[in-house]
């Protein structure tokens, strides 16, 4: 590569002060600006010491500041069509949960105080009770996320002479970034006892693996991929029978925690599973109550997948086992704060009140008809009249995401943008860097904003963001 910069005369580096002053209207704390400027100057000094030609420090620092601004946590518009997008913070909260967080955040709470007796109380007494009821379980508890819940379960159920955890080879999976079942087992001090094969594991395989060293049978719900063809696995009831006969607990890592069944909502719009043979009806995620009812001694799931709440890990099941988790010193390190507990409590109440369909944003998004989405898309495209890019309404397919219902695609409607001369990826990047940031997808030379995951109240902001991004020089 040749250097496109004109050769600059070798000159003194600008001062920290001058660079900071040139960035006076950046909406970041001065300390962040100063630190970024210093880092930019240090990099330039190193370049010059290495004998490289001088760079435009002011421009470099400007870009670095822009990147720092973009790294601040803030709201974005999700135009990807993936409802539970892990990179975008999974589930938006129900209005009641949002209000509960705001109220708890702004003041004091009875976090560890029993208001009836005035004595020190359990941190999450109500939410644990509500979650237990929701899961048709004796007891429930909450920690930071599902991964943390699984770690606590493993630590609680193994002993030095009984550390083997029986898992099907078809379930030794990677769930998200850096979350692999075998690694979690190893971290928790458990010994993996693999059974079956990748595609087929039977109840007899589990039964044959039981020994005096067995701590538990673990079933990991396959949520982010699927297997088809010559496959077999025991029915949940069969596995419970094996575990009971062996006198060891059956633990189900469920992941999604679908306390409300979204499948009928999606299916009304003929959501389909694409299989090699054609299409099949949408998948159904088992509910935690079903899993407990099917004989699981413990079930763990995420708060922010199909449960529709904040990031949390719920563990529900037998009281003696749940209480054991609470006695682990590590529990203290993995517990939730008042904000998460408030949001989770409100979300559990929404489920228990039968209000999930009306109140949970993710359910409403999944249930929106393509007719409604098309109307909004038409209105957005009409607003974009006269733009230096072609905007059209196109059918598309979204997903549930968050490692759930991997075969289900949800029919949806998108605003498609074909930028004049610049590549579509360029326009998508401009949208992503805009304010608000709009996350779109690029396919076949078009930028697509799927309206299923855009809140209706964000439509006007999308119009403005598209206008700015199209006008922005590439
Ligand atoms: C998503 C998922 C997890 C991890 O949940 P986090 O709450 O993100 O820790 C664990 N197990 C299964 C089966 C999952 O689908």
The portion of residues assigned to helices is 25-40%
Structural class: alpha/beta
Determine Rg (CA atoms, Å).
26 Å
Overall mean confidence score, pLDDT? 92
Number of helices: 19
The span between the termini is 21 Å
Q: Tell me the major beta sheet.
A: 7 strands, mixed
**Coarse shape:** globular
What percent strand?
A: 15-25%
Uncertain residue ranges: none
Strand tally, please? Answer: 18
Q: List the bound ligands.
A: pyridoxal-5'-phosphate
In short:
The protein is α/β, with parallel strands linked by helices and 474 residues long. Helix content is 40%, strand content 20%. It has 19 helices and 18 strands.
Give me some keywords for this one.
474 residues; alpha/beta; seven-stranded mixed β-sheet; 40% helix; binds pyridoxal-5'-phosphate
Summarize the SSE layout with pairings.
Blueprint: H1 16-22, H2 30-49, H3 57-70, E1 76-78, E2 82-84, H4 95-106, H5 125-134, E3 139-143, H6 146-157, E4 164-168, E5 174-176, E6 179-180, H7 181-187, E7 191-195, H8 203-209, E8 214-220, H9 236-246, E9 250-255, H10 263-267, E10 272-275, E11 278-281, H11 288-293, E12 298-302, E13 313-317, H12 319-327, H13 329-334, H14 338-352, H15 356-359, H16 361-367, H17 370-383, E14 389-401, E15 404-419, H18 424-433, E16 437-439, E17 441-443, E18 446-450, H19 459-471
Parallel strand pairs: 1-16, 2-14, 4-7, 4-8, 8-9, 9-12
Antiparallel strand pairs: 3-13, 5-6, 10-11, 10-15, 12-13, 14-15, 15-18, 17-18
Helix pairs in contact: 1-2, 2-3, 4-14, 5-14, 6-12, 8-9, 17-19, 18-19
Residues 145-147, 175-176, 179, 220-221, 223, 253, 255, 302, 313, 403 line the site of pyridoxal-5'-phosphate (PLP).
């Amino acid at each position: 590569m040749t250097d496109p910069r004109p050769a600059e005369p070798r000159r003194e580096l600008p001062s920290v002060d001058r660079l900071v002053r040139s960035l006076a209207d950046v909406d970041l704390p001065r300390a962040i600006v100063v630190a970024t400027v210093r880092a930019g100057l240090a990099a330039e000094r190193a370049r010059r010491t290495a004998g490289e030609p001088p760079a435009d420090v002011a421009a470099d620092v400007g870009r670095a500041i822009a990147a720092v601004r973009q790294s601040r946590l803030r709201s974005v518009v999700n135009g990807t069509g993936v409802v539970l997008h892990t990179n975008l913070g999974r589930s938006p909260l129900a209005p009641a949960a949002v209000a509960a967080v705001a109220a708890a955040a702004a003041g004091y709470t009875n976090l560890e105080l029993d208001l009836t007796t005035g004595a020190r109380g359990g941190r999450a007494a109500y939410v644990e009770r509500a979650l237990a009821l929701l899961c048709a379980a004796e007891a429930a508890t909450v920690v930071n996320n599902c991964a943390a819940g699984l770690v606590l379960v493993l630590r609680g159920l193994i002993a030095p002479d009984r550390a083997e955890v029986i898992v099907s080879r078809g379930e030794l999976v990677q769930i998200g970034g850096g979350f692999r079942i075998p690694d979690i087992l190893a971290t928790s001090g458990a010994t993996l006892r693999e059974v079956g094969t990748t595609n087929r594991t039977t109840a007899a395989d589990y039964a044959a693996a039981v020994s005096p060293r067995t701590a538990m049978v673990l079933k990991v719900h396959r949520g982010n991929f699927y297997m088809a063809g010559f496959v077999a696995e025991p029915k949940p009831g069969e596995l419970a029978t094996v575990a009971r006969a062996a006198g060891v607990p059956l633990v189900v890592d469920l992941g999604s925690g679908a306390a409300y069944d979204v499948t009928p909502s999606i299916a009304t719009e003929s959501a389909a599973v694409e299989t090699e043979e054609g299409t099949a009806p949408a998948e159904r995620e088992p509910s935690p109550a079903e899993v407990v009812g099917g004989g699981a001694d413990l079930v763990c799931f995420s708060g922010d997948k199909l449960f529709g709440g904040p990031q949390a890990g719920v563990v529900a099941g037998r009281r003696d086992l749940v209480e054991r988790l609470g006695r682990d010193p590590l529990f203290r390190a993995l517990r939730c704060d008042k904000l998460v507990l408030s949001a989770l409590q409100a979300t559990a109440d929404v489920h228990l009140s039968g209000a999930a369909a009306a109140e949970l944003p993710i359910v409403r998004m999944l249930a929106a008809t393509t007719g409604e989405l098309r109307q909004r898309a038409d209105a957005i495209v009409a607003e974009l009249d006269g733009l230096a890019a072609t905007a059209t309404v196109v059918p598309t397919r979204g997903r549930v995401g968050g490692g759930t219902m991997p075969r289900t695609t949800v029919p949806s409607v998108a605003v498609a943008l074909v930028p004049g001369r610049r590549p579509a990826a360029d326009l998508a990047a401009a949208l992503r860097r805009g304010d608000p940031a709009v996350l779109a997808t690029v396919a076949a030379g078009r930028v697509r904003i799927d309206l299923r995951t855009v809140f209706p109240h964000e439509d006007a902001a999308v119009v403005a963001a598209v206008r700015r991004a199209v006008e922005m020089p590439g």
